[in-house]
């Protein structure tokens, strides 16, 4: 026997935990978990943290909004287990960065015309504070998709827009836009710099505009830069750069598992650069980070793609937490909608997340714990479900089985979580309509329509609180202890 439960609290327990985990092979259920004292001590520490949680009832200087597209609660739970298992643990006990946020609410995601919503109407809700119709963005529900004459007069404005409008130093404000989508910015037929011989990746604009040039020339006199690969992004001097546009793929960014690590930056790299540039603004900043391909992995019915995207998205949240301070930065993590993704099957502790349930189904065939309610994973052979044991169900591109055949798996209609920390994060509690997200953020930063909010910046009128080196490391240590 190699394990001994340690009563040492905090760091020591964590160290013991790590040492034990790496020094011997474990039974699926760690022995210390059989000790009531382990659970009692762990819960006591959580209770202590809850009792001493500071109420940050002051104004947020910065806002970070993280949006996991299609990142329902089941996706977060499965990604957490996957990350733990990639680190050699049984997985369930792992904490994602978002799991450490002290406040959580539920968001009702339906839109004005749909019970199960799309990403456009939901973006209008959490950005602009107003629920909308499917296939419309930045317009109230008076606007109807494909009826262009219903657009004008029905515009609604995002919190980001309001923050920009309210910033009196707006003419010198920093701005960052990073992601994919190069071919939508250049005139039809323009060769792509990364794939110059590819005909399917040429510029796509029928109006013959080059929006990269338009963007750059609108920022003449400022230090504005355009980059299209990781090397150029790394070379950007954050001290001298005011505005940055980076477009790293002709269409979507590649899935994280297929990313060319030398040529394409990750969502973590992009988040880091953005914060380094934006945090130079003494008045604060608003940053929106979207993990946009979680949704695509699910639509493809390939859970591994969705979950690995979720893990990287969470690492971007972690990196942002290291680069900002909870005392002046409101961080909000949420999703636009869920997916019909689930995992179950009475699996034992530590069961590989992409593995099989322990028993065969009524049709005498094995089944994976992860399943989709619908999607391309419906594969029946001669009226029988496929035999998942006969295929490589751990691979990057394995499609989990689905109950109903669809070319593309669909969004889910249940609530998604909102995780929050920082100034006014306590506004995120209970069951809320999705459009509340924009209102709570606007209030926390005293933006339209809450410019009369009574909140003051912490330390304003007195001394400015700046984030110092030691504070960063203390935050880091606390995070470790809480794991
Ligand atoms: C908008 O255009 C459609 C036809 O394209 C027309 O039927 C409708 O009356 C127009 N609505 C308004 C408000 O002008
Ligand atoms: C900056 O903000 C002021 C006040 O809101 C506004 O009048 C002005 O048009 C803005 N300037 C720019 C360049 O956006
Ligand atoms: C990754 O990108 C580099 C260029 O930076 C290229 O040389 C290499 O072939 C690419 N790797 C793959 C696997 O595509
Ligand atoms: C399906 O059934 C037919 C007729 O019984 C048979 O010829 C065929 O081999 C079966 N296909 C598979 C993949 O089992
Ligand atoms: C399913 O596939 C596995 C592995 O190929 C095989 O051992 C098993 O017999 C198959 N089960 C059925 C019911 O065909
Ligand atoms: Zn989608």
Oligomer: single chain
Structural class: alpha/beta
Number of strands: 16
Mean pLDDT: 89
Residue share in helices?
Answer: 25-40%
Task: Summarize the helices and strands and which ones pair or pack.
Blueprint: H1 10-23, H2 36-51, E1 62-68, H3 73-86, E2 103-108, H4 119-128, H5 159-166, E3 175-179, H6 211-217, E4 224-227, H7 230-235, E5 243-247, H8 267-278, E6 286-291, H9 294-299, H10 303-323, E7 329-335, E8 338-339, E9 341-343, E10 370-375, E11 380-381, E12 384-385, E13 402-405, E14 411-412, E15 416-421, E16 430-433, H11 436-444, H12 469-482
Parallel strand pairs: 1-6, 1-7, 2-16, 3-5, 4-5, 10-13
Antiparallel strand pairs: 2-15, 7-15, 8-14, 9-10, 11-12
Helix pairs in contact: 3-10, 4-11, 8-10
The structure holds 2-acetamido-2-deoxy-beta-D-glucopyranose (NAG) (5 copies) and zinc ion.
